[in-house]
């Protein structure tokens, strides 16, 4: 679903327009899409839900097992620390039309049972929540409440390595929290000022900018440090550009797993897309998903010029 608000029609939205309750009201238009409509766009569903075009689509739930890491579950240690962070920001403010005073009862079991019952267990490169959480806790005793220093998990690293090689979509981050404590405290204070009438919506900063810099690599937002040009391209692009996906769409012309089969013209087109500003809708990789630092971008471009 895509919806329009007044500022989106004029491309003038500020954080106060899209990160507060204002975004839930006074819509100017709504458009519904299905996966067929989106299959050749940057918001395609099928590269995750149908990673092999020769097989039927699948239900995805990478964190299929209890304790469902990253779910806002009020009876699991990870869920409670995330709920606490949320409450510090939003208090009892309504959210997504859900009354703010209602207790969090999000539980992965019901949807996990549904996914498994439909035949989608195990998941490809499944995130082993209990094992990974235990390994992270053993590596950094303050977890999950304190996520600096970051944790480590050999089990998670195995999943990441397979995704890095372009075999699977990336796994979720190994730690329960993905936030930088300082950035989160700043965003929390700013939003609380807004809620208490001490800051105008127009002055609200972008409170989404709270990721821990050290976690960006593990979240596959930026490429792995030390990766060569080909590895940067595979890690960054293979999720949407590989031979297993729908070969009938234009995106299939760029198969990052078979660079040798691409023509010089196709490679130059890819280079041009990489060089576009992040604000351009044709910029690659899509800015909402990935970012390539300048030094690694040059390595990727050099690989494409071979």
Mean pLDDT: 96
User: Oligomer, anyone?
Assistant: single chain
Whole-angstrom Rg: 21 Å
- What gross morphology would you assign? globular
| Major sheet description | 2 strands, antiparallel
Read across the widest sheet, the strand sequence of neighbours is 1-2
How many β-strand runs? Answer: 2
Domain Cytochrome c: 224-306
GO molecular function: electron transfer activity; heme binding; metal ion binding
Keywords: Heme, Iron, Metal-binding
Protein name: Cytochrome c domain-containing protein
Task: Explain what the structure shows.
The protein is mostly helical and 306 residues long. It has a domain at 229-304. Helix content is 36%, strand content 2%. It is built from twelve helices and two strands; from the N terminus they run βααβαααααααααα. The protein has helices at 6-9, 15-18, 35-38, 46-49, 77-90, 108-117, 129-139, 154-164, 181-195, 229-237, 264-275, 294-304, and strands at 2-4, 29-31. Strands 1-2 form a two-stranded antiparallel sheet. Helix 10 packs across helix 12. The protein is globular and about 60 Å long. The model has no long low-confidence stretch (mean pLDDT 96). It comes from Labilithrix luteola. This is Cytochrome c domain-containing protein. Keywords: Heme, Iron, Metal-binding. GO terms for molecular function: electron transfer activity; heme binding; metal ion binding. InterPro entries: Cyt_c-like_dom.
